[in-house]
Amino acid sequence: MSEEIQLTVEFSGVGKKIAETDLLKLTFPADITYHDVVERLAEDYPEMVGILIDESKRSFLSSTMFVINNEMMDAVMIMDKHPKDGEHLALLSIMTGG
Predict the structure, then answer these.
(1) pTM of the complete model
(2) What pLDDT, on the 0 to 100 scale, is given for residue 1?
(3) Does the N-terminal or the C-terminal CB of the chain have fewer CB atoms within 10 Å?
(4) Strands 64-68, 71-73: parallel, antiparallel or unpaired by DSSP?
């Protein structure tokens, strides 16, 4: 088993504006969880905290849709699971206002 995995993180909307890109290729240790991915994004892009990322910096806000390899996931249900090498994670923010 490889000691590192590569993930692609795709942003749209406000996430894309903050990251100033729509696609990131990130390398992580093989034993990470999705919490670790969120923590890395919070560290690299602190402006996402409170907009896409929860104040704990370990989870996404409920307004952030989490899509893994084109399958919608409930972020709360998978945060303790381990991503697989090559996964494509898309973050979509559902922003509403009036």
Answers:
(1) 0.89
(2) 53
(3) C
(4) antiparallel
